[in-house]
Amino acid sequence: MTIEIAEKPAASAEVSARELLKGVKVVDADTHITEWPDLWTSRAPAKYRDRVPQRRTVGGVTKWMIDDFELAKNYGYSAIMKDGSKLAGLDFFNHPLEDVTAGAHNLQARLAYLDENGIAAQIAYTNLLGFGGGKSMKVDQELREISIRIQNDAMAEMQVESKNRIYPMAMIPWWDIKASVREAERCADMGLRGINTHSNPQHHGLPDLGHEYWSPLWELCEDRGLPVNFHVGFSQGAEGWENPDVWPSLTGYEKYAVSGSMLFAPNMITIVNLLLSNVFRRHPRLKFTSVESGVGWVPFMLENLDYQVRENLPGKPSTVFEDFRRHFYICYWAERDGLLETVRRTGADNVLFETDYPHPTCLYPDPIGYHRATLEQLSPVDRAKVFGGNAEKLYHLDLGAAAPAS
Which of 166, 168, 205, 267 could pair covalently with 293 via S-S, beta carbons 3.0-4.6 A apart? Predict the structure, then answer.
């Protein structure tokens, strides 16, 4: 396979990032939706209305609660404020919904943000229940599942109201395979284009993802064209993104930086496990996405795993590179050199551009402009794949009415 990296033009010929993406419908493959106060209560049956996620003031402090359990303080889950400024570090945990940019939670404001930045569509994930529903594990299964169904209903409504520009990923009740299949099918019927699930169910007494136990879900995902998404904010455990091995001697943002820098590691382990399993022999059309993990580590991972198979499993032919290219997609945002090296070594077909809007490390205020120098060094074909085409194909997006970047 020959991979082309375009020559960087002279400074005098410098063009903008938007011009370099002229005609490309840019897809942002990882963003977040801040939950609004009545998301659940306005849709819940009467018997659940006081138990589903909602804001309550407890001891003078406003919190998000599910039943009698705290999900979070009154966070707005956005580092971007109403005045357009961006907070540093952990400060975003101190600001309620009322302080943050409307684009975090209001659909029309979000669409205006997309238009201003030349973005045709976004793939989106919610926050409060955990990126894979893990925080709902604090309550009984019945309440947990009704809360997830309500959230999926709200997200399907948002997708329709956005005229297919915001594509939230469906959360599934991964702790119950039959319920997972039912909910994934229901969400596919509503038009949602992928599922978000736990990468390590074996930590909770379930079979690992290589086991045939998961075949009914994988078969449905194959038949309905649903990619299976592993968001790094959920991959380390059911309740949060904090790495349990961060040193206690570190404080504040130091701990955050270590956890944030290493979030990719559990996803890498999941991918390696899947590549060595028999999942893809049984499910040749199954697709997985590693969300918010970056891509610079991918060439090393593949080369090293291929070597391990050839050296230590002599009776097993290595299909590492082929299986990765056929079944995996990886989201990146902040890397520049890492992206170019990954494209050079493994190709552009498996890379998805993201911004992580509106979380603390998001590309803001000029997400496409941030990558101008990177875009110059990619071929036009690879630019189109990474910044839109790959995501459009993977998630079966309907971008007919969405404007291109220029």
Answer: 267
Q: How far apart are CA 294 and CA 333, in angstroms?
A: 7
Cα dist. 177→53, 183, 224 in Å?
A: 24, 10, 17
For the chain, the distance separating the N- and C-terminal CA atoms, rounded to the nearest angstrom, is 31
CB contact at 8 A, 55 and 64: yes
Phi-psi category of 238—alpha, beta or left, where left has phi over 0 and alpha has psi -120 to 50? Answer: alpha
Q: Decide: helix, strand or coil at residue 96.
A: coil
Distance of CA 392 to the CA centre of its chain: 15
Q: What is the pTM of this model?
A: 0.93
User: Burial code of 61-98, b = ≥16 C-beta within 10 A, e = fewer?
Assistant: eebbbbbeeebbebbbbbbbbeeeebbeeeebeebebe
User: Per residue in 37-57, pLDDT tens?
Assistant: 999 999 999 999 999 999 999
Distance from C-alpha of 290 to C-alpha of 351, rounded to nearest angstrom: 10
Cβ neighbours for 32, distance < 8 A, ≥ 6 positions apart? 77, 104, 124, 125, 126, 127, 356, 357, 358, 359
CATH number for the region 11-394 comes to 3.20.20.140
Please write the tens of the pLDDT for every residue from 81-102: 999 999 987 788 889 999 999 9
- Edge to edge, the sheet with strand 166-168 lists 27-32, 121-125, 166-168
